[in-house]
Each structure stands twice: as C-alpha cells, then as structure tokens.
Specification:
The structure is a single chain. It is globular, with a radius of gyration of 21 Å. The chain has 14 helices and 18 strands. Helix 7 runs parallel beside helix 8. By secondary structure, the protein is an alpha/beta fold. The longest helix has 26 residues, at 217-242. It binds (2R)-2,3-dihydroxypropyl phosphate and manganese (II) ion (MN). Its main location: membrane. Residues 30-322 form the Sulfatase N-terminal domain. Keywords: Cell membrane, Membrane, Transferase, Transmembrane, Transmembrane helix.
C-alpha cells in the first residue's frame, strides 16, 4: 500500500481542486445524457465542403447561450480507441500504453463515475447498438456498476436502417427514446454512436453533403458520415424535447478519438491548406468536440483553456454538485482556476498553456514554431511530470492498487489515525 500513498499525495498536490467555482451544482439533480460521438474531430466543426457546413447542428449548438464549449479539448486515447475514451471519462485515469484496459483489467477495483452516481441516487445506463461483448464492455460495465446496458438486442435492425457497422445513428437514437423515457430520474445515460466510423461508408441516398476530393478515400468519405451523425444529433435533441426529457437534462457531446489517422496526412494537409502536417499539427488535430448543453442556463460561453478527456469526470461531478473528497483523479474540473496546466497524451506528448511537445520537440503552442534550445528547457519539467503521471496511472492499473485505497476516508487520514 505504500505506492498508493505516494500517488495519493501526488494527486492531492497536483490535481485536487482546492475551491468550488460558481459552476458547482449548476446541474444538480439533472439527468445527464452523455453522447460519445464516434470519430468526431474538432477540425470538422466549422469546415465546409463545396460551400456547405459539414456539421451545421453542432456549429449552432456550440454557440448556443445554453452551451459551454471547450475548443481546446483533446482526446487521450491509445490502442483501446472507444473503450479507452470510456475508461478515461469514467475514471479520470489514463489508458494503458498497449491494449485496452477494458479487456486486460476489467476486474480491477475502480471508483468510476457510474458507481459514484449510483451512490448519489442516479440510475445509470449505456446505449450502444453493437454486440455487448465488443471491447469487453459487458464485463467492465458490470464491474463499474452500470444499472443497464442496452446493446444490439435492444434494437431492431433492418436492411433499410443499417449499414457498415450495423444500426445507423438516426435509428439508434429514435429507438432509444422509449427506454430513456422509462428510466427512473435522475439518470446518467451514455450513448455511443457508430455510423461515423472508419471506413466511413454511407449509402448515396443517405448522404446530404458531397464527398471531399483528395488522394485519401477515407478522408473523402469522412465528411458525409460526419454530416449524417450531425443530423442524427439534431433529431435526437428534438426527440428529447418531444419526450419531455430535454428540460430536466444536461446533454454532453464528446468526440471519442480521431477518425483520420496520420496515414492520411497528405490529404489532410491539402484539406487544411497546409504544406505538411508537422508533429505539432498532429497533436493539434487530436482535439475533439466537447460541449456541455444546459437547457435554460443562458450563461453559455467558450472556454479556451486546454482540456482533455481526463477532466470530464471531475467536471461532471462539479456541475452535479457531487463532492467526493477522497476520490483520486488525474484530471481537474474545468471551471477551477487552479489547474495543473498541461494535458498529457498517452505517447508522452503533451500540450501546456505555452507549449506543444511531441516527438521530442518543443513547439510554441500559439505559432506552431519550434522554440529555441533555451526555451525548450521549459518543456522538460512538464515532460517529467507527464511521464510520472502516466507511470502512476499504469501502476494503479497493473497493481490493482485501488484495492488498498479507502475512498471513503482517504488513505492518509487512515494512516494518521492508526499512528495515533
Ligand atoms: C464499437 C465501437 C467502435 O462498438 O464503439 O469502436 P472503435 O473501433 O472506435 O474503438
Ligand atoms: Mn470509436
């Protein structure tokens, strides 16, 4: 148990929010509808194909007076893709350097968001129209106490409403409403979309925007499916209103990870009007949409600060007014001023307020220019912290260290008491 003590001290010093912002409890007792939007990257927002917006609904939504939008929000996933993003959001911990935690450590002790929400009288559920055992979700969800998982068998898939990976997003949302309505309130429900997934195939008659024209078939096809999913979200919001669920809920949209890998850098550079995609650009392309829509809030704004999936759990708890004094998280709620100042990627790259560090190169975050050797030294202390943090997170997972941690009391407190 001594390593967990060390980790606890680190977290208390570095990631614990020392004060409550004015956002604490703003969404108290509201339902939370969390939508994990498959492969949606930030560059898609506000981009156009032949003069047409790709994501008109999300573009409007992020500007809404009821929406808090984070344009510098990064995904932090690795090989576990969607399952990594789920793991990060649920636990405010990093995914593993290899494989998927959902597969390799599904039986560990966690203090995951659904468990905490359950204890706070929330009903918790997941909606995803794929095979339940994909990414070992059934096992992990059970361990972290989701009350209900609606998988493939909860939906009616026909040749008309399916393609590619299965049931299309519009049918997925539409068929989910009856289950959502039947849930006890307040609830936390996670929706995982599927249509906008590699290889981004969409039947012609369902495409409402042109393909792009480049040497990458993947990038070309990315836009019509992105538009399709944007339309499905618009319909979902309307269905929530029609079902009387909208007013009492907050709706969170988050991109799970990139959709366009670096294999398509050439086409991507063409699309963005750049000569090439540098390691700096690559990191910046890992930004994914993150917006929190609070009907009736009217205080909506854009927070430009750097943020990541690691911050989602503490942020949601903060909005819901849930205090967990001894919870351990590597992220921080996004409304506090007192944050650690960097977002770590699984491969050791990071983004800080001033720098972007990748491939051992320190870039100026503002300009994208490599900084002078002297200045680059400023990246080193951050790099050390990033490596330390990733290592701590790995230790917790590999050693199942939360078995030795008391989430009610906190370890240090317990230790002090036993020393008396
Ligand atoms: C599978 C879906 C896609 O159920 O979530 O997973 P991904 O390939 O993106 O990890
Ligand atoms: Mn995914």
């Amino acid at each position: 148990g001594s390593e967990i003590n060390e980790i606890e001290s680190y977290m208390r010093d570095n990631t614990e929010s020392k004060e409550k912002s004015e956002m604490f409890g703003v969404a108290k007792d509201k339902n939370v509808i969390f939508v994990s939007v498959e492969s949606m990257q930030n560059f898609t927002l506000d981009s156009k194909i032949n003069g047409e917006e790709v994501t008109p609904f999300m573009n409007d939504l992020k500007e809404s007076k009821d929406t808090i939008f984070f344009p510098n929000f990064y995904h932090q996933t690795a090989q576990g893709k969607t399952s990594d993003s789920e793991f990060i959001v649920e636990n405010s911990m990093y995914p593993l350097p290899r494989g998927s935690v959902y597969f390799t450590h599904a039986q560990n002790e966690y203090n995951a968001l659904p468990e905490i929400l359950n204890e706070n009288d929330y009903y918790t559920s997941v909606f995803h129209a794929n095979n339940k055992s994909f990414w070992n979700r059934d096992v992990m969800y059970d361990n972290i106490s989701y009350d209900k998982f609606h998988g493939e068998e909860s939906y009616e898939a026909t040749p008309q409403n399916s393609f590619g990976w299965g049931l299309e997003d519009k049918a997925f949302f539409e068929q989910s409403i009856k289950y959502l309505k039947a849930q006890e309130e307040p609830f936390y429900s996670k929706f995982i979309t599927l249509t906008h997934h590699f290889p981004f195939e969409l039947p012609e008659d369902k495409a409402n925007i042109d393909k792009y024209d480049s040497g990458s078939r993947t990038l070309n096809h990315y836009f019509p499916t992105a538009r399709y999913t944007d339309e499905s979200l618009e319909q979902f919001f309307q269905q929530l209103k029609d079902a009387g669920l909208y007013e009492d809920s907050i709706i969170v949209l988050m991109g799970d990870h990139y959709g366009i890998s670096e294999y398509h850098n050439k086409a991507m550079a063409q699309f963005l009007g750049k000569e090439e995609i540098t390691p700096y650009d690559h990191v910046q392309l890992q930004r994914v949409p993150f917006m929190i829509h609070i009907p009736g809030y009217e205080g909506g704004k854009q927070y430009d600060k750097i943020a990541g999936q690691i911050d989602v759990k503490p942020t949601l708890m903060h909005l819901l007014g849930i205090e967990e004094e001894n919870d351990l998280s590597f992220g921080t709620d996004l409304f506090t001023e007192d944050r650690k100042g960097y977002i770590a990627m699984r491969d050791g790259s990071f983004v800080s307020d001033k720098y972007v560090y990748s491939d051992d190169i320190c870039y100026d975050r503002e300009t994208g220019e490599q900084v002078s050797e002297e200045q680059a030294e400023a990246c080193q202390p951050i790099k050390e912290k990033v490596d330390k943090e990733l290592g701590y997170s790995d230790s917790i997972i590999y050693g199942d260290l939360f078995r030795f941690y008391n989430f009610e009391e906190g370890q240090q407190q317990e230790k002090e008491e036993s020393e008396e």
